[in-house]
Structures are given as C-alpha cells and as structure tokens.
Specification:
39% strand, single chain, 2 helices, nine-stranded antiparallel sheet, 12% helix, mainly beta, 9 strands
Length: 162
C-alpha cells in the first residue's frame, strides 16, 4: 500500500492545495440484498483528476460568486463520520485512513465482476447516480473520500507513486 501521508505530506503543504491524478479500485455498492448474484463481486477502477485539499466551503462560495449567485448562503455540514487530521486531506475513522479530495474529472472507469471486465449495463443492482444540491450551484464542487487502501496510484507534480 502507498504511504499516502508521507507522499502528500511532502508534496502538499499542510492546509495547501494541489492537483493530482489518482487511480482507485473500490468495491461497488449494489442494491438487491443477498438475492443479488453480483453482490460483493463487483469492483470499479477509476482514473480521475482531483484537488488535494482545498477549503470546500470556500470553493462552493467562489463558484456561487462566479455563477452570479453570491447572495446565496452555503455552509458545510458537520462531518457525519470520521475525524479530519489537522488541516490535511486525511480522515481517520475506525482505525482506517481515508483521503478526501475535490473531484475534478474522470479519465476512465472500468467495472469488474470477479476480476473480469464487465459492462456497466450488465451489472445487476447498480443504483442510479445522485447529485447533491449545493445551494443551487450548476458547476458542483464534488467531494470524494477514498479508503487509502483503495488507491492504487497517485500522480502529483508529474511524479507517479505506485
């Protein structure tokens, strides 16, 4: 597993911001319960561009201003799980470490059933995508939180860590 706290600690000053590319492999949550034959067998590999770490509330306020909606108020809710480690992009929860990022764009997405490629449309019980409201923003500030054990690689400043 990557030592993300060391890598990011060296590349991103505490409380600072930088862009990165990450590749993650995560378990896909499916609906249908125990009757679903794909339950627990589907994974998703995502290659994405993200921002390590920024002030989420400030990012949303800035976008509201750009969209001419500066009079609208937006306040970040309290965390429902985990504890942020200082001013970093790391969250600790139940003795696990998570990386919280602002999601910018997807480069590629692949799905696997038992490690073999599968078309997204062939996955049984894949729930529909939902978006948050964010005070009426059209260009949303999307937060993603990844278990550090699910991050296969990260590229920061042109340097790739596997």
């Amino acid at each position: 597993m990557l030592n993300l706290t060391k890598i990011i600690g060296e590349k991103v000053p505490n409380g600072g911001t930088t862009f990165a590319g990450i590749t993650t492999l995560t378990q896909v949550k499916l609906v249908g319960g125990k009757k679903n034959p794909h339950l627990g067998r589907v994974t998703k590999r995502t290659v994405a561009n993200v921002m390590l770490f920024a002030d989420y509330e400030r990012s949303v306020q800035r976008k509201l201003y750009k969209e001419g909606k500066e009079g609208l108020e937006f306040e970040v809710s309290e965390r429902t799980w985990g504890t942020r480690i200082g001013k970093s992009c790391f969250i600790e929860h139940n003795e696990h470490l998570y990386l919280e990022v602002i999601f910018k764009s997807v480069t590629s997405v692949e799905y696997f059933l038992d490690g073999q490629p599968i078309d997204k449309d062939d996955i049984i019980g894949l729930p529909p995508h939902r978006e948050a409201d964010q005070g009426g923003l059209e260009d949303k500030v999307t937060i993603r939180t990844y278990g550090c054990e699910n991050i296969e690689r990260i590229t920061i400043g042109g340097e790739t860590f596997v």
